[in-house]
Amino acid sequence: MTNKHFDDQWKLLQQIRSTDTQKEAVRKRIRESIEGQPSKTHPYKLLQWKSIIAASLLVVIFGGFLFMLMEEKPKQNSSEYFVINHEFFSWKLEDVTSKKAGEKLELYNKNNPIPFGTVNEVTEAEMNSIIHSKPMHVNQELEHFPYKTFMYIEHVKMQDVAFRYYFFIPLTKEKWIQFTFDYPKIEYADIFQAISTLELKGKKPYHHNEPLYVTHGYGKMIYPVDLEPISVTSNNYEVYRWEGASTEAFNHYLEKIPRGYDNRFDNWKKESGKGSVNTFVSVDGNEVITITLNGNKLTYEYFYPNRDE
Amino acid sequence: MNKDREELVMDWYELHYDDIYRFILFMLGDKQYCEDLVHDTFVRAFTAIDGFENRSTVRTWLFSIAKYLVIDEIRKRKRKRFFSAVGFSEEIASSFDVEQIIENKEMILLQMQNIQKLKPNYRLVLTLKKIEECTTKEVAEILDWSEVKVRKTLSRALHSLRKMNGIGGEQS
User: Fold this and answer.
1) What is the percent of chain B with per-residue pLDDT over 90, rounded to a whole number?
2) Hey, are the CB atoms on A135 and B32 less than 8 Å from each other?
3) Where is the RNA polymerase sigma factor 70 region 4 type domain (chain B) (predicted)?
4) Quick one: average pLDDT of B95-121?
């Protein structure tokens, strides 16, 4: 390839740009964000505060009346009435505690004061509003889970959160329960272990009679749902305790990998392996994963042969 | 006063949107994130406008802000399994709206994918020099490097890219 051809390529790459619609959408967002910023000069700030306080007082007074009226009303039909508290749900994920925070429950790992997730009840309209107002990148119904479960993944640009997983499960015709989990405050495997072993009080869960695998939301590799992280580092090396580990279960898993989550047979090719150590290559050749079973420890080693990093 | 600043930043947006968008797109290869970071770049410019002392051009200043944001994002992505997570080709394909580019889509996708595989520093210098056509002095200013480092890194980046393309050489 000549320098001239190389130069032509740069010229083409320089022409890449977004569409006018995208530009307009970002322009609108910037305007909204800028206008939402606090002003540095506040000539009538005091007046504004007075109005806010007066309005808040009115809300409190009328809210009080409303609350008293509602208290007088009989409770709704108990078969359609759910109270979201720590007794309402359970799962096999250990060392999780919850604390009431307003309308929702916050989820904590034992001995960690920072919540990693939330649980709350939402209406269908609220759920749709959440789905449409966040930058959701994955929209998937999880098959064979204990309840009809819809998963969404939001890209979150926070120091300690990269992805926020949302799971919506219908409770009644109008009400849904929403679970959120923040990665990397909680590991992928833990998120899916929680949801795949979920039991809601008063709602019978479905138990699938075949092993369940998930993609952890992204990527093409499937993982058993019953993994507990032992050592997950950023050095492309992960070790899990596999609850359902056995030679038979491992063979079933290895057979399932090339078929993928969607049974399309176009995700992974087995490169080598026999027995407990097996290597798979993604069809584009950009990812190589060696999977090893040792007792009940399942190890993944990731390599990216075409990545210059 | 805020209104004046807002209008100034929105004027900058009209002038430099394409450059900033392309720079972030080449750095991250992810359209959705690209839009988010373009947004963040201009909002940060608005909040930091008092610190802009006209010592550099607005364009290089905006590139510096965008650079911090993309480096921060790349650090985040180093957490396991992120890179393989986000689809690339599908994202980029919808960014084409020039007929000539559509005709060369395969070649461009391949080249963009190759650029994505480079080290972040190589990607930075290559994007600023070859795509955004900044001068070596401007790149040095944006990246806070010496001009010698810019030249050396560019040369290495081009060498890596040549290797990926399986070809001989190109002078920077």
Assistant:
1) 47
2) yes
3) 115-158
4) 74
